[in-house]
Amino acid sequence: MKTELVLVGKTVNKHFIACINDYVERIGHYMPFAVTTIPELKNTKTLSEQQQKEREGELILQRLQPTDTVVLLDEHGKQLRSIEFAEWMERKYNTARRLVFVIGGPYGFSPAVYQRANEQLSLSPMTFSHQMVRLVFIEQLYRACTIIKGEPYHHE
Questions:
Q1: pLDDT value, residue 30
Q2: What backbone phi and psi angles, to 5 degrees, belong to 37?
């Protein structure tokens, strides 16, 4: 199964970039994994929040294939413990050809993206910056890989 993380806007914090790149490399030892960054919209001062979501949504939808299993990282999504997430990932290995996780822009997702999504997951009831969510999610994805392989990275 191929796995991809689609992000709206580039990661700007150099410390986050270094950590994210480290985990992306580690994940690559367990499965095909890629990160795709959709450029931030330009001239957003003249756009409403809804217009920004719609335009970002169009760009997200262009990156998706009809057979993709699409999972939005969304504050209203289902919350899983790390072990539950690993079990969830293992089930996806058996059912999905390409698993695409999406982290949207600052205002969330357009209705069209919600409609296209197969599932929604939430990392926490707390709010994180979009920069921080990227790192936290990629670390959890790596953790799930190590749990599935029975490696000692995760301790209960």
A1: 97
A2: -105, 125
